[in-house]
Design goal:
By secondary structure, the protein is an alpha/beta fold. It has a domain at 10-75 and 172-239: Glutaconate Coenzyme A-transferase, CATH 3.40.1080.10. It has helices spanning 10-14, 35-44, 64-68, 84-91, 102-114, 128-131, 199-205, and strands spanning 22-25, 49-52, 72-77, 96-99, 118-121, 135-138, 144-147, 153-158, 161-169, 173-184, 189-190, 206-217, 236-239. The strands form three sheets. Strands 1, 2, 3, 4, 10, 11, 12 and 13 form an eight-stranded mixed beta sheet that branches. The chain has a three-stranded antiparallel beta sheet with strand order 5-9-8. It has a two-stranded antiparallel sheet with strand order 6-7. A hairpin with a 4-residue loop joins strand 10 (173-184) and strand 11. It is globular, with a radius of gyration of 19 Å.
Length: 259
């Protein structure tokens, strides 16, 4: 692999993402969504995708545009409440969904990128997360076609007290798509505020990580202490500029007296 990982177009960046691929996609709500890459993937025509991301965007933005065009077979997410089409497809049996606690999802991605096969956590102990039976796909008539399987539970001593922990397997995917504020030609990335929540973890989990960046700089221009994700995890980088559209998931305003 050459040290210069830049590509010239979004189409080139996603060209080998074929139907049936698995992807980890960064972003938190609508913040940090790699929209240029998502749009290029939509235009490519790949379908039956299995996607891991904190959420699935909204009906007309983020991963919601892939969902609305029937390109997603399965979503592994922690929050899905803003997308009506997501709800419809799930309840009608068109979409498989693996709901995962948010912190657990983050750690599953981090573990996958770190070469850790699995880990134990207390999150989900005593619930269907551990005991199984969570609906993953409905049959279209109100019944459950696929339910989650039980997970191993082990007791460990924590500060002298024995507690149960559930085993969670790490996540790795064929590809990762992320958006960063800044990156250099070697793939070192800097994320902006809450876009950093899941994006570095998603990038780590993908065997091939594709990053779109608002600003592309030369190697050495980013202070090493400011790098959020080292370039060793990034395989392709596309500069998209700073004038791209950025949406707010839910705008909240406060009434000001006299306004």
């Amino acid at each position: 692999m050459t040290m210069d990982k830049t590509v010239s177009t979004a189409a080139e960046a996603v060209a080998d993402i074929r139907s049936g691929s698995s992807l980890a996609v960064g972003g938190f709500g609508l913040c940090g969504n790699p929209m240029i890459l998502i749009t290029a993937l939509l235009e490519l025509g790949s379908e039956n995708l299995s996607i891991v991301s904190n959420n699935c965007g909204v009906d007309d933005w983020g991963l919601g545009i892939l969902l609305g065009n029937r390109r997603i077979r399965k979503m592994t997410s922690s929050y899905v409440g803003e997308n009506k089409e997501f709800e419809r497809q799930f309840l009608s049996g068109e979409l498989e969904v693996e709901l995962t606690p948010q912190g657990t999802l983050a750690e599953k991605l981090r573990a996958g990128g770190s070469g850790i096969a699995a880990f134990y956590t207390q999150t989900g102990v005593g619930t269907q997360v551990a005991e199984g039976g969570l609906p993953r796909r409905y049959d279209g008539s109100g019944g459950v076609a696929i339910a989650s399987e039980p997970k191993p539970v082990q007791t460990f001593s924590v500060r002298g007290e024995y507690k149960p922990f559930v085993l969670e397997e790490a996540i790795t995917t064929d590809f990762a798509l992320v958006h960063a504020k800044k990156g250099d030609r070697h793939g070192n990335l800097v994320f902006d505020k809450s876009a950093r929540n899941f994006s570095p973890l998603a990038a780590m989990a993908g065997r091939v990580c594709i990053a779109q960046v608002e600003e592309l700089v030369e190697p050495g221009e980013i202070d090493p202490d400011a790098v959020h994700l080292p370039g060793v995890f990034v395989h392709r980088i596309l500069e998209v500029g700073t004038d791209i559209e950025k949406r707010i998931e839910r705008r909240t305003v406060r009434h000001t007296e006299g306004a």
